[in-house]
């Protein structure tokens, strides 16, 4: 019998509360601002493995661009929602598979991918030891000229720090600095780990090397602040413009809510 996870509980309202929220949509578009030119620079159709695909929003978008996509998630409920989306659109170049981190190597051991993609912090549910193992697993799944493209919750978020200090909630303001964090919903718990870009890159050594990093949510607020901005579209628009202006520098990635990090396969291994 499968253990129910927080993501199974979130699945039914995930699109409404995150994907289609104003802040969630703008942050996703910032990810694609970096992802789209990277994909185009490859110059060909890619075979892509998405881990933590959630409700399939990005996998479907990638498939609609012509890429061959396999979306995986540890939540069977998320996979069910994603599969229904894919079926409704009659896409034959995307499929969704229930597969937790620990089974990826076994599930896809005879397959090769050009890119492994993970959006919006699913990878933060993996410990350092688990990420190091994933690096080894991906080294056998990713082609020699392939890449990893992950969107990771940062260890320091300026928005979060200021927001919760102002609300006099220091325990939450500094939570990303703690060693042990747990996300709980309806009594179901999931560990959460926060990584700086430098630390995250090192966990994939020697199989993958740092390629590039970009901030996401440096000026755009985290999605849990949606209610503070829903009636202030002018403010949100100004912050979005700053996100694409001042918020494009890789050196500021450590201050953002998330960061995009691209790692390149070491072809010598």
Topology:
Blueprint: H1 6-19, H2 22-42, E1 47-50, H3 57-64, E2 68-73, H4 76-89, E3 94-98, H5 104-107, E4 113-118, H6 128-141, E5 142-153, H7 158-166, H8 170-173, E6 181-185, E7 188-192, H9 197-203, E8 208-216, H10 226-229, H11 233-244, E9 258-265
Parallel strand pairs: 1-2, 1-4, 2-3, 4-5
Antiparallel strand pairs: 5-9, 6-7, 8-9
Helix pairs in contact: 1-4
Q: What does this 3D model show about the protein?
A:
There is one protein chain. Helix content is 41%, strand content 22%. By secondary structure, the protein is an alpha/beta fold. The longest helix is centred in the N-terminal third of the chain and has 21 residues, at 22-42. It has a seven-stranded mixed β-sheet with strand order 3-2-1-4-5-9-8, with helices on both faces. A two-stranded antiparallel sheet has the order 6-7. The chain has helices at 6-19, 22-42, 57-64, 76-89, 104-107, 128-141, 158-166, 170-173, 197-203, 226-229, 233-244; strands at 47-50, 68-73, 94-98, 113-118, 142-153, 181-185, 188-192, 208-216, 258-265. Helix 1 crosses helix 4 (76-89). It has one domain (10-153, 193-265): Rossmann fold (3-Layer(aba) Sandwich). The model has no long low-confidence stretch (mean pLDDT 93).
């Amino acid at each position: 019998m499968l253990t129910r996870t927080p993501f199974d509980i979130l699945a039914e309202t995930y699109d409404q509360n995150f994907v289609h929220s104003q802040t969630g949509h703008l942050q996703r578009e910032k990810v694609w601002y970096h992802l789209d030119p990277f994909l185009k620079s490859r110059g060909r159709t890619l075979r892509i493995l998405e881990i933590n695909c959630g409700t399939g929003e990005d996998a479907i978008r990638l498939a609609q661009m012509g890429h061959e996509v396999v979306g995986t998630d540890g939540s069977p409920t998320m996979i069910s929602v994603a599969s229904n989306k894919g079926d409704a659109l009659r896409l034959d170049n995307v499929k969704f598979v229930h597969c937790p981190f620990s089974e990826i190597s076994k599930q896809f051991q005879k397959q090769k991918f050009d890119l492994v993609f993970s959006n919006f912090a699913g990878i933060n549910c993996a410990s350092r030891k688990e990420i190091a193992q994933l690096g080894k697993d991906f080294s056998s799944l990713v082609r020699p000229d392939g890449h990893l493209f992950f969107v990771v919750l940062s260890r320091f978020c300026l928005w979060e720090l200021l927001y919760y200090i102002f609300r006099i909630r220091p325990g939450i303001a500094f939570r990303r600095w703690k060693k042990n964090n747990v996300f709980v919903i309806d009594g179901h718990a999931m560990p959460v780990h926060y990584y700086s870009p430098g630390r995250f890159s090192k966990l994939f050594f020697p199989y993958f090397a740092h390629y590039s990093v970009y901030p996401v949510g440096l000026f755009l607020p985290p999605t849990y602040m949606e209610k503070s901005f829903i009636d202030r579209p002018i403010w949100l628009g100004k912050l979005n413009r700053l996100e694409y202006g001042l918020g494009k520098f890789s050196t500021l990635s450590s201050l953002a809510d998330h960061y995009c990090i691209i790692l390149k396969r070491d072809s010598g291994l």
